Amino acid sequence: MRERLLHWLSQPPLGAVEVLGVYWPIHGEPDLRPCREHWRSRGQTLALPRVGADGVLEFGCWENDEALRPDRFSIPVPDPFRPVVPDLLIVPCVGFDSRGYRLGYGGGHYDRTLSRHPVKTVGVAWDACELPDFVPGAHDRPLDAIVTESRVVPGASGGPTGPASLPR
Q1: 148-158 pLDDT, tens per residue?
Q2: Averaged confidence pLDDT in the chain
Q3: Which residues pair with residue 89 across a beta bridge?
């Protein structure tokens, strides 16, 4: 999955992303931390989320050896927290469907964030997490694409454009 994601995100126009919103894996989510050095070597700034007071995610610049501290959900966030605005978000999926809708842990934080700050999104999920079409809530936002260990699933927008030769 990591190799597929790295290759897919390195293609134009996605390779021009300057600030990449990533996540700290919990509960068996795909662990993308080994990709950090690759993205940094491309000059991309990485940002980790924290939940703001209104439930919208805020992203803080995540430097190489920067200290992390647990947030209110015990998920590591940069310390000090220096806010940045991502050009693209990599979003973990607990479940997903063929239309690009995802299931998270039910807090609605990514959906609130995307409704206020539209940005390109790429979900990451295990193939086994694909569900038959489910009924999304009115607040749910489809992702642009979802990368699994075997393919790239275009979302509602058809996914960010990339070479036609990339495996889907």
Answers
A1: 999 999 876 65
A2: 87
A3: 21, 121
CA 156 – CA 31 distance, rounded (Å): 25
Query: Would 17 be classed as within a structural domain?
Result: yes
What pLDDT score was predicted for residue 135? 87
- Whether 45 and 78 have beta carbons less than 8 Å apart is answered as no
Q: Per the domain annotation, does 83 fall within a domain?
A: yes
Q: Which two tokens stand for residue 118?
A: 């539209």
Q: Which two tokens stand for residue 48?
A: 């980790």
Q: What is the H or E stretch that residue 78 is in? A: strand 76-78
76 and 69 Cβ atoms separated by less than 8 Å: yes
Tally of structural domains, the chain: 1
CATH number at residue 132: 3.40.50.10420
Q: What is the pLDDT of residues 38-58, one digit of tens each?
A: 999 999 999 999 999 889 999
Do residues 86 and 110 touch, judged by C-beta distance below 8 A?
no
Please give the order of strands across the beta sheet that includes 83-84. Answer: 83-84, 57-61, 45-51, 19-21, 88-92, 120-124, 145-147, 152-154
